[in-house]
Amino acid sequence: MKNLKVTEKYNNKKLIKFLLDNIDGLSTSTIYKTLRKKDVKINDKRTSENCLLRTGDDIKIYLPDNLQKKDLNIPIIFEDDNIVIFNKPIGVEVTGENSLSSYAKKLFSNNINKFIEPCHRLDRNTSGLVLFARNQTSLNILLDAFKNHLIEKHYICVVYGIPRKKSERLESYLFKDSKKSMVYISDNLKPGYQKIITSYRILKINQTKNISLLDITLETGKTHQIRAHLAHIGCPIIGDGKYGINKINKIFKLKTQALSSYSLTFKITSDNQLSYLNGITIKQNQVPFMNLL
Questions:
Q1: Phi, then psi, of 227 in degrees rounded to 5
Q2: CB of 260 within 8 A of CB of 283?
Q3: Backbone torsion region of residue 35, taken as left when φ is above 0, otherwise alpha when ψ lies between -120 and 50, otherwise beta
Q4: Residue 68 scores a pLDDT above 80
Q5: What b-and-e string marks burial along 93-103, b requiring 16 or more CB atoms within 10 Å of the CB?
Q6: Does residue 243 form part of some domain?
Q7: Is 123 labeled as catalytic in the residue annotation?
Q8: In angstroms, rounded to a whole number, what is the distance separating the alpha carbons of residues 232 and 228?
Q9: Which of 92, 248, 271, 281 would give a disulfide with 265, using CB separation of 3.0 to 4.6 Å?
Q10: Which residues lie across from 84 on neighbouring strands?
Q11: What is the domain extent for residue 197?
């Protein structure tokens, strides 16, 4: 619990403004969550409203540590004047409040060139490499490169089961149900389904645990494609609460999918500002999830 006194500066100001300014690391969403639970008291009376304050008001807010916004410390894998590649941890959004993007903007806020924008996204609970542009020209080139498959992304994951082939190019069809935040896979084309192509290569297996470490590449990039496609062939990603097997996830004590964007290879052959990157591969410093094997 935190006890605060309203100063004259915040007379006739909104409660949320006061709390954001006076409690380090507090996010707007956390405040609204706390208000809904009536865990804020003004002069010893519980409130759920973003009301106006008066000088001298006593504020008490009951705020569990796990609801406070965590300070981020996200490693940079590669950096030059045109691009930055971060290694995003699990649990961090690429955009939005307290996201990788907001972290990057704050990190570069003191630079002469403050421009920094993400070129692609990862799911909140998928870790790994995220590419940012340091200027508008680079951003335009990189967005076009992703669109034309000139940046090859490799993912690493651990699945339950051992695929029947050492490597395979999987072709299926995906339907996105936005209301349920789920996707569905079919081997046959159906109304509303779009073609997906996912390729895998086995890197390592553990026969005793019945698990495999896979290298994944995508020719299409649909929502939850890797997770759903691997589950469709009977090899769900360990820790995946949506497309995986809960009892298996519990055995391995994972609550988030063992899936990470592991490397980026540039294939920019045009004569432009980023042509020097052609043929370069940037990888994570360590192979993820080896401890599971």
A1: -60, -50
A2: no
A3: alpha
A4: no
A5: bbeeebbbbeb
A6: yes
A7: yes
A8: 6
A9: 281
A10: 79, 132
A11: 155-260
Residue 34 sits at φ, ψ, to 5 deg, of -65, -40
Domain end position, chosen among 20, 50, 67: 67
Inside any domain, residue 34: yes
| DSSP structural state of residue 27 | -
- What radius of gyration do the chain's Cα atoms show? 23
Q: Where are the alpha helices (DSSP H) in 115-184?
A: 136-147
Task: Please give the tally of structural domains in the chain.
Answer: 2
Q: What is the pLDDT of residues 89-115, one digit of tens each?
A: 998 899 987 789 999 999 998 888 899
Q: Is residue 6 one of the residues assigned to a domain?
A: yes
Q: Which of 44, 58, 80, 123 is catalytic?
A: 123
Q: Answer with the one of 51, 67, 83 that is the final residue of a domain.
A: 67
**Neighbour count for residue 78 (Cβ, 10 Å):** 16
Residue 84 lies in a domain: no
Q: Cα 79 to the chain's mean position, in Å?
A: 20
Sign of CA dihedral 9, 15, 20, 25: positive
Q: Contact 128/87 with Cβ under 8 angstroms?
A: yes
| CATH number reported for the structural domain that contains residue 8 in this entry | 3.10.290.10
CA atoms of 240 and 127, how far apart (whole Å)? 13
Whichever domain contains 194, its CATH number is 3.30.2350.10
Alpha-carbon distance 222 to 186, whole Å? 14
Q: Is 259 helix (H, G, I), strand (E, B) or coil?
A: strand
pLDDT tens digits along 244-277: 999 999 999 999 999 999 999 999 999 999 999 9
Coil, strand or helix at 275? helix
Q: Are 157 and 260 in contact (CB under 8 A)?
A: yes
Contact 176, 276 (CB under 8 A): no
